[in-house]
């Protein structure tokens, strides 16, 4: 009888340890995210399930073209792509992205841009100083984000630069649907 009691106690300890470990991993290292809406098409689709790696921004800085999750409001997170970093100037002219006056390729948009005519740009022209905040460069501690679906995305063009401390993490792994399982670029 005593042996059975000890066995139950060992199981309870193991389950409790596993639950605490899962909670720590969930709170500090990874967060599940569900893509809500079409703003990241063609890269991500509505209903894609992803893992956001929180650790990246605890020990490092965002990189250009990271797909990030950030707190847009108190109860809503958005998923967008980092386009410009602090201290940089960003503008779009003739459907081309310019950072500090130099053209920057956006290879993740090649497939979708090819379906647009030269009369209708994929991304309408903008200059950083004409956007919310009227900045001449991305402020220290901020990033500039855009959705890949430029015609249907609430991003830095409307919200202004995003504070780095609002970034939840980088979303680079999709686990559902299974046919698109894997790392996202």
What does this structure look like?
With 185 residues, the protein is of the alpha+beta class. It has a single domain (31-183), classed as Umud Fragment, subunit A (Ribbon), CATH 2.10.109. 22% of the residues lie in helices and 31% in strands. Strands 1, 2, 3, 4, 9, 10, 11 and 12 form an eight-stranded antiparallel beta sheet that branches. It has a four-stranded antiparallel beta sheet with strand order 7-6-5-8, with no helix packed on it. A hairpin with a 5-residue loop joins strand 11 and strand 12. The chain is elongated, with a radius of gyration of 21 Å. The chain starts with a helix and ends with a strand. The mean pLDDT is 89.
Please estimate the helix content: 10-25%
> What's the CATH class label?
Mainly Beta
Taken together, the total number of domains comes to: 1
Radius of gyration: 21 Å
- The N- to C-terminal Cα distance equals 57 Å
Spell out the CATH superfamily. Answer: Umud Fragment, subunit A
Largest sheet: 8 strands, antiparallel
| CATH architecture classification | Ribbon
Overall pLDDT metric: 89
Principal-axis shape: elongated
Transmembrane segments: 12-35
GO molecular function, one term: serine-type endopeptidase activity
InterPro entries: LexA/Signal_pep-like_sf, Pept_S26A_signal_pept_1, Pept_S26A_signal_pept_1_CS, Peptidase_S26
Subcellular location: Cell membrane; Membrane
């Amino acid at each position: 009888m005593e042996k059975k009691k000890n066995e139950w106690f060992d199981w309870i300890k193991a389950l409790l340890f596993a639950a605490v470990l899962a909670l720590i991993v969930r709170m500090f290292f990874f967060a599940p995210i569900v893509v809500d809406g079409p703003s990241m098409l063609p890269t991500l689709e509505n209903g894609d399930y992803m893992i956001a790696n929180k650790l990246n921004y605890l020990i490092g800085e965002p990189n250009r073209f990271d797909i990030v999750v950030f707190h847009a409001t108190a109860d809503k997170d958005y998923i967008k792509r980092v386009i410009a970093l602090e201290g940089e100037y960003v503008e779009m002219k003739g459907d081309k992205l310019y950072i500090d006056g130099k053209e920057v390729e956006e290879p993740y948009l090649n497939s979708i841009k090819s379906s647009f005519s030269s009369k209708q740009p994929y991304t309408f022209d903008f200059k950083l100083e004409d956007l919310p905040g009227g900045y001449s460069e991305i402020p220290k501690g901020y990033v500039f984000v855009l959705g890949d679906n430029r015609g249907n995305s609430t991003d830095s063009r409307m919200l202004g630069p995003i504070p780095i401390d609002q970034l939840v993490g980088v979303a680079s792994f999709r686990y559902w649907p299974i046919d698109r399982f894997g790392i996202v670029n």
